[in-house]
Amino acid sequence: MTTYDERASLSSLTATAERIRGAVEGVIEGKPEVVRLSLTVLLAEGHLLIEDVPGVGKTMLAKALARSIDCSVRRIQFTPDLLPSDITGVSVFDQQRRDFEFKPGAVFAQIVIGDEINRASPKTQSALLESMEERQVTVDGHTYELPSPFMVVATQNPVEMEGTYPLPEAQRDRFMARVSMGYPSPEAELRMLDVHGFVPPLDDLQPVAHAHEIVKLVEAVRTVHVAEAVRRYAVDLVTATRHHPDLRLGASPRATLHLVRAARAAAALAGREFVLPDDVQALAVAVLAHRLLPTAQAQLGRRSAEAAVLDILQRTPVPDPSAQAWRQARRL
């Protein structure tokens, strides 16, 4: 049975998420789906990769999401000469204390904005691996916990752009979802000229939620029920990526976990206390595609990883779509 406290938590989640969404959409014109996915990743305790060509608002989306929440924010501009210690921190010898003192790096914040992450070398990119997965940093044998909530929002230009490095597979796998901004519609671009033409809207953006609220909302998302049939459906989708003829690298078990967590957050944002197969389907491309590597034949045929995920969605049997079945499962 769903308790009153759980229903109240989901109601509070919807209201808080609506405030954040409204604040971010006041800065990012005409991209409601992108903003909603960003919120989904935040509440699912994931990390977001924003990929697109320069000038479409990738960094602005990351900054708007960070500024809408009253929490610590650090921005890292990734460059070819950036060192791993610039991200994680370094131990410095203190002459007065005659001992080493740890100086935290830029990753010690609740929201970390990694701008143009693929402009740094793979060695520097790998400095984020431990922090993104385990929410901690180990330097000189000492482990330091990161604050909660913790989210990395990274932007990157397409690999074929000059001066970029491809993200290592282990790095991509730690991002819960990838989103592409895309060009705005002509109407949205006209509104952008009116809004952005005089004063940058980020200057007027005020926090509409606190970090402790986000922590509570994350806990509320964890209470969302996922029926066994939906869990099996997510496993079937991920398993199919490992055998698809167009893919030489399928999705990992971590991808299955991320898909289910994101589906929980999406259901909560919709005001539901249970996950539907539709939630999984809607997030499959964003959560799975960036982890997959197409074969050489698929690349020659211009068949992308996104197309492979869509093909898998069409071929994989969907559980009974009746919402009543998921409600009944919730009561058991």
From TrEMBL:
Keywords: ATP-binding, Nucleotide-binding. This is AAA family ATPase. The keyword Nucleotide-binding applies. GO terms for molecular function: ATP binding; ATP hydrolysis activity. Residues 240-300 form the ChlI/MoxR AAA lid domain. Residues 47-176 form the ATPase AAA-3 domain. It comes from Streptomyces klenkii. It comes from the Bacteria. Gene3D superfamilies: Magnesium chelatase subunit I, C-Terminal domain (1.10.8.80), P-loop containing nucleotide triphosphate hydrolases (3.40.50.300). The keyword Iron does not apply. Belongs to the MoxR family.
